[in-house]
Amino acid sequence: MDKDAGAAIEKVMELITLYAFDVIGALVLLIVGWMLAGWAGRTTRKSLEKTPRVDNTLAPFLSQIVRYLILAVVIIAVLGQFGLETASVIAVLGPLGLAVGFALQGPLSHFAAGVVLLIRRPFRVGEFIDAGAQSGTVKEIGLFASVLTTVDGVYDYVPNGQLLNSPLKNSSRAETRRVDVVVGISYEDDVEKALSVAQALLEADGRIHKDPAPQTMVVALADSSVNINLRCWVDPGDYWGVLFDTNKGIKLRLDAEGISIPFPQQDVHIKDRTAA
Questions:
Q1: Other beta carbons within 10 Å of 237
Q2: Coil, helix or strand for 268?
Q3: Residue 93 is part of which domain span?
Q4: Are 127 and 79 within 8 A, CB to CB?
Q5: Least CB-packed of 8, 232, 239, 273 within 10 Å?
Q6: Angle at CA 237, nearest 5°, toward 148 and 50?
Q7: In this structure, are residues 135 and 129 in contact, taking their beta carbons and an 8 Å threshold?
Q8: pLDDT (tens place) for every residue of the chain, 276 residues total
Q9: In terms of DSSP bridges, do strands 226-234 and 177-185 run parallel, antiparallel, or are they unpaired?
Q10: How many domains does the chain have?
């Protein structure tokens, strides 16, 4: 029994002595390669972002590709540290990659969607988009998902496949946006005076474009009010400010002119059948 234990220990020590340097070298290579891949990815991104000819949308995507390519080379080098031939490793990785591809159809579909998004360019970094249930300012388009920041400051990580397969609205792509504010006035009030007050409010706002000119019109004779629409065109960055200020301004102006904004109401007539 002692001889068997001694032989086993001797065998283990022999294996440790034989492969110790290979294991240490592989670990060092893996750590250094991992750090190098991260550094190369960050450096690539910073360089691309500083290059005027390269769209900022491409920088995160290309930097991640550089990082993963370096990691793949490092893994092959680590395997080669244990005596495996590079050609054999690549030959084994082919069928293995195919099997992994079938197992990871979801992530790979998001990768393909990311490539399509970069080719078609329905949105770029810094633009505000609305894609179904997701909306926000695009911060990054990655290999498998894109990062949006919502209007309330929430970090939203959205798979690229979801963005590609959803109806998408880009609020930043057009040079101008139209603002529409609808306000109701009482049937007893002067419609022409209300239109004049609304028109003056729009024309006094320097953020509103002169061409096309702002418009006011009666859009509906509703159940409880005559509805007036205030319509104008602004730069995309001024949209929300003009919308909120116009809503507030028209309320204050109508109050100052004695024009009422009625609440919904109905007239109810009760017929007394016993009177007949």
A1: 11
A2: coil
A3: 2-103
A4: no
A5: 273
A6: 60
A7: yes
A8: 455 655 666 665 555 555 666 667 677 777 877 888 788 777 877 776 677 666 666 677 777 777 878 887 777 777 766 666 655 555 555 555 544 454 445 667 877 887 788 778 888 888 899 988 888 999 888 878 888 999 888 888 888 888 888 888 888 888 899 999 999 999 999 999 999 999 999 999 999 999 999 999 999 999 889 999 999 999 988 999 999 999 999 999 999 999 998 877 666 767 766 655
A9: antiparallel
A10: 3
Where do we find the tokens 């680590």?
78
User: Where does residue 56 rank: exposed (0-12), middle (13-18), buried (19+ CB within 10 A)?
Assistant: middle
- For the record, the structure tokens of 188 come out as 């007893």
Q: What is the DSSP letter of 18?
A: H
CA–CA gap between residue 98 and residue 93 (Å, rounded): 8
- Identity of residue 266: Q
Q: Give domain status of residue 10, yes or no.
A: yes
Query: Whole-structure pTM over 0.70, yes or no?
Result: no
